[in-house]
Amino acid sequence: MDETTKANGPWRRNLHILWFCSFIVGMAFSEIMPFLSLYVNSMGDFTKAQVTMYSGLVYAADFFVGAIAAPLWGMLADRTGRKVMLLRTSLGIAVAMGLMGLATNVWQLVALRSLQGVFAGYIPNAQALIASQAPQEHSGAALSTLMTGGTSGNLLGPVLGGVLAQIFSIRVTFFVTATLLLITFFLSLFCVREQFVPVTKSTATANDHNPLKVLTSSRLIFILLSSTMIVQFGNTSISPIISLYVKELMHNVGPITVVAGILAALPGISNIFAAPRLGRYGDRHGSGKVLIFGYIFAAIVYLPQGLVTGVWMLGILRFLVGFADGALFPEIQTLLTKNTPNDLTSTVFSWNQSFQSIGNMLGALIGGWIAGIFDYNAVFFSTAALMLLNLALIWWGAPQIRRTPAVKN
């Protein structure tokens, strides 16, 4: 698809619809994610170390399966279109989420999280669809704006989930989540437009079992994919323990699920305002500059989270995390878009989803392991160190992105 066709295509309308769908998906997932460890804790008489270990396993199951399945779905999407992938993932996860509300032990929950991983990927597929349709000069702003849909949902979801869990039970949030995902399925079915025409692949691409090898910017692509994994590793290492950390800071007194939900939502507030502005700045001045800022700022705000003595201090720092996320995830994906040919858009974005799933899996497992052996604050210290290591990888491994804006192949 050439730039003229893109400019006149349905990408703006799809952006609005997929923003709303991403909002629903973000809200659906964030309703239950902060409370999974509490849900696990309710399924048995576990020690602190056992809860963190089982919580990490439950978190990781989805992402382990998703890491394997994502590239296969991505290659299929490049042949059949992205809309069908949106339908596949929203319906499949709705079923898995509904069944999780009926789970009675940890191993059933692990199995259903694995089933969820098979169908995962609504937001990455929405990003791939917009990336394939939006003109290059608008890609940074478009993808950053789309990502605010998910983060806006993440903002509301934990608060809604916390209230539902406090008034009813954590199980109720799974049924609400399944209903929201069914709404997303029908919106995607009837409102999203895609006139998909399979792009004729080059001979090299068609004959290579690993299409990423034929990319002229393959080194940069691999570094960006690795960065997705590392950033997601850092974020997810905190997810299994955040509600337990809040419980400890509150000395097990008060509306813990509500407070944990609010703290989980705070990064979304700042992200909503930061991501589109940082995306537009990156389009004009270079996405690499925004990316480097994100890593430095992330390290600065993660480190003191392990030193706080109250939920108010933790809340302020969690709010600042949204600025870092608004600089990191959208700019990584913008750089991927600008360095990926159109016929490999879904393939590369599916690999990005796979690396993200690996980061989720390792972060959940290792974060729970670190918290079990040391303490909750050690997870925040290790995340800050990881952001600095990723900055070093970008700085020396891909120096071109800090010098000039990356150009699409």
TrEMBL record:
Membrane topology: Multi-pass membrane protein
GO CC term (a single one): plasma membrane
Coiled-coil residue windows: none
Location of this chain's protein in the cell: Cell membrane
Family annotation (Gene3D superfamilies): MFS general substrate transporter like domains
Gene Ontology molecular function terms on file: transmembrane transporter activity
Keywords on record: Cell membrane, Membrane, Transmembrane, Transmembrane helix, Transport
Main location, first listed in the record: membrane
Limits of the Major facilitator superfamily (MFS) profile domain: 14-402
Pfam family name, one: Sugar_tr
InterPro entries cross-referenced by the UniProt entry: MFS, MFS_dom, MFS_sugar_transport-like, MFS_trans_sf
Bilayer-spanning residue ranges: 17-40, 52-73, 85-107, 168-192, 220-246, 252-274, 380-398
Domain of life: Bacteria
Name of the protein in its database record: MFS transporter
Native species: Levilactobacillus zymae
